[in-house]
Write a structure and sequence with these properties.
- Chain A has 118 residues and is mainly alpha-helical.
- Helices cover 59% and strands 7% of the residues of chain A.
- Chain A contains 4 helices and 2 strands; from the N terminus they run H-E-E-H-H-H.
- Chain A has a two-stranded antiparallel sheet.
- The longest helix of chain A is centred in the middle third of the chain and has 19 residues, at 33-51.
- Chain A starts with a helix and ends in a 22-residue tail after the last helix.
- Helices cover 65% and strands 0% of the residues of chain B.
- Chain B has helices at 10-27, 48-79, 84-103, 113-127.
- In chain B, helix 2 runs parallel beside helix 4 (113-127) and helix 3 runs antiparallel to helix 4.
- The chains are: A mainly alpha (118), B mainly alpha (130).
- Chains A and B meet through helix 1, helix 2 and helix 3 of A and helix 2 and helix 4 of B.
């Protein structure tokens, strides 16, 4: 029961911090506090399921969620975005070892300008 | 196009983005264009409905809405089996989840982590068997 309460408090904290103002810098990446708390929430859920030995029954909601994820996956494979992301990753990795230039084509918001690779 | 002296309200931009998203959905209506496709043309997709349609097509849209309906229906059924103290807490959580998804019709937050933690809690509560 204590774990349930803890998760509910985490959700409230999550909602509170979802203003997305608070963030920390972890290894150069900007991590929002809401993301951190959401990860904690998921960890507590997993700990609850595997350590406290809840009995979970299969429901129709599980099947529907798996079907939804399957459609998401199919749509993702069909679109060009994952392949562009992969090419961006490998190109960035290659450029990291070049001495002459490490400038990435980013806009003022730090987002990669797609299709603008020199 | 808007005339220079005409004020453009945020709601106009939302409807414009929703229209763009819907037109994008029409080009691939069955399984959609893939997650996050709106980023190619607009900064964000304001509506949950157009996001689902554009990202996963009519198949994903129907499956997700049936899933939500199933979660609410099973959740409300489960509430009647609980004791009085848990009943009020579960009812409050269900109403909060319904309110959250209602607000997503015009401000989509499906990408926000807490939405999925909330959903996980709702699904776990209907799956508990003791």
């Amino acid at each position: 029961m204590k774990l349930n309460r803890l998760i509910i408090y985490l959700i409230i904290l999550c909602l509170f911090f979802e203003a997305q103002v608070f963030s920390v810098n972890i290894l150069g990446a900007r991590v929002r506090s809401s993301q951190f708390i959401a990860c904690l929430g998921i960890l507590f859920l997993l700990a609850g399921i595997f350590c406290l030995r809840f009995k979970l029954k299969k429901t129709q909601a599980d099947l529907l969620l798996w079907i939804y994820q399957g459609i998401n996956f199919l749509a993702m494979i069909k679109s060009s975005q994952p392949w562009r992301l992969l090419s961006f990753f490998f190109l960035s990795f290659g450029r990291f070892f070049k001495k002459d230039s490490c400038t990435l084509p980013m806009n003022n918001y730090g987002q990669w300008i797609s299709g603008s690779w020199p | 196009m808007h005339a220079p002296d005409e004020q453009l309200w945020s709601v106009d931009i939302r409807f414009l983005a929703m229209k763009e998203s819907f037109l994008s959905f029409l080009t691939s209506p069955l399984i959609g264009q893939g997650p996050g496709t709106i980023g190619k043309t607009m900064a964000f997709n304001p509506s949950l409905l157009t996001t689902l349609l554009e990202d996963t097509g009519i198949l994903g849209f129907v499956v997700f809405l049936v899933f939500l309906f199933q979660v609410f229906r099973s959740g409300l059924k489960k509430i009647s089996e609980l004791d009085e103290k848990c009943q009020s807490t579960s009812f409050a959580l269900s109403v909060a989840l319904a309110g959250l998804f209602s607000s997503y019709i015009f401000t989509n937050g499906l990408w926000i982590p807490f939405t999925w933690v909330f959903m996980a809690l709702a699904v776990a509560s209907i799956k508990l068997d003791r």
